[in-house]
Design a protein that fits this description.
Blueprint: H1 9-23, H2 31-42, H3 52-91, E1 98-101, H4 105-114, E2 118-123, H5 133-139, E3 144-147, H6 148-157, H7 163-180, E4 183-189, H8 208-211, H9 213-218, H10 231-235, E5 250-255, H11 262-266, E6 275-281
Parallel strand pairs: 1-6, 2-5, 2-6, 3-4, 4-5
Helix pairs in contact: 1-2
Length: 284
C-alpha cells in the first residue's frame, strides 16, 4: 500500500477513478469534490498518507456506496424499460394504421414483427417530394434496399433486364440480408409494382415475405432453427453458403403514396390485411 505503509492522495484518487471507469457512478463535475471528501474520510488524522486501518474502513463504505448507485441505476433502467413497453403496447396495440415519428420507428417495427405482420410504412416524412427523411435513414442504415419501382422500369419500360434477371438481383439482396441479419427494405416509392402477379418467385423473392411474417421469424435463429422444408430453403443455393437465417433478419415495405390513397393503389398486389400499416412522419 503505497510507500511508507500508506496511500498517497493521488493513489487514493486512482482507486476511485478506476472504479468510476468500470461503473460510471460519478460525472466529471462530481469527481473533484468526491476525491476531496474521500481523502478527508480515509485520512482523518490529517497526515500525508492513508494508513491501512482507516483505508479498510473507508474502502468498505466506498464499495457499499457504489453498489447502491449501481442498484439504483439498474432499478431506474428496469422502470424505464417497463414504461417504454407499456407505452408501446398503448401506441401499437390496435390493428389499424399506426402513427409514429421517425425517431420511434424501431419500436413500431418491433411491435409489428411481434404480431407476425410485415410492416408497411406509409412514408410521410417529406411533404415536398423528392428523397424523404425515411429514405435517407434507410440509405445510411446498412440494410439492404430493394428498389421495386426501379426494377419494374428496367424490365417493363426500358427493357434492360428480363424478369428473371431482376429477380436474381433481388434474390442476392435477400440472401445477404438473411445471412447478415439485415432488414430487406422493399421500396415501392410512388408506384404499385406487380409483385403478386409478376415480380415475386418462391425461389428468388417469395411472396411469403410480405404475407406471412410469422414464417419469416420462424426460420430465424442463428443455427438453432433448421431451414429444411421452409420458404428459406427454396431461396438459398449451395453457392450461397447459408446454413441458417440470422436471428435479426426481417422484412419491411415502404410506400410513398399518401395515407388517403395507398390502400387503393396497393390492394391488388400486396396482402394488406396481413401487413401492419405504419404512417411515419417527422412531426411529433
Amino acid at each position: 500500500m503505497g510507500g511508507m505503509g500508506g496511500l498517497k492522495k493521488g493513489e487514493l484518487a486512482q482507486i476511485i477513478k478506476d472504479a468510476n471507469e468500470a461503473y460510471g457512478f460519478l460525472s466529471d463535475a462530481e469527481f473533484p469534490a468526491f476525491i476531496k471528501q474521500a481523502w478527508a474520510d480515509a485520512q482523518p488524522d490529517d497526515e500525508n498518507l492513508v494508513r491501512p486501518e482507516p483505508f479498510r474502513t473507508w474502502h468498505a463504505s466506498f464499495v457499499d456506496y457504489f453498489e447502491q448507485v449501481k442498484a439504483k441505476d439498474a432499478a431506474e433502467a428496469a422502470a424505464a424499460a417497463e414504461a417504454k413497453a407499456k407505452n408501446a403496447a398503448v401506441a401499437f396495440g390496435g390493428d389499424g394504421l399506426w402513427h409514429v415519428d421517425l425517431k420511434g420507428l424501431q419500436d413500431a417495427l418491433t411491435a409489428a414483427w411481434a404480431k407476425g405482420k410485415t410492416p408497411l410504412l406509409v412514408d410521410a416524412t417529406n411533404d415536398q417530394g423528392g428523397f424523404s427523411a425515411l429514405e435517407t435513414y434507410y440509405s445510411y442504415s446498412g440494410h439492404q434496399l430493394l428498389e421495386l419501382k426501379k426494377m419494374v422500369v428496367e424490365v417493363n419500360m426500358k427493357k434492360e433486364k428480363t424478369v428473371e434477371e431482376a429477380l436474381d438481383e433481388a434474390r442476392a439482396k435477400l440472401v445477404l440480408s438473411m445471412k447478415r441479419g439485415l432488414n430487406l427494405v422493399m421500396l415501392l416509392s410512388n408506384s404499385a409494382p406487380p409483385l403478386k402477379s409478376k415480380f415475386t418467385s418462391p425461389t428468388q423473392l417469395p411472396y411469403t415475405l410480405l404475407e406471412d411474417n410469422a414464417a419469416v421469424a420462424k426460420v430465424s435463429g442463428d443455427g438453432a432453427v433448421p431451414m429444411d422444408g421452409t420458404w428459406a430453403a427454396k431461396v438459398v443455393t449451395d453457392k450461397d453458403q447459408v446454413v441458417f437465417v440470422h436471428k435479426d433478419f426481417q422484412v419491411v415495405a415502404v410506400t410513398k403514396f399518401g395515407e388517403e390513397d395507398y390502400a387503393q393503389f396497393l390492394a391488388a398486389e400486396l396482402p394488406l390485411d396481413k401487413m401492419q400499416h405504419i404512417k411515419v412522419t417527422t412531426q411529433s
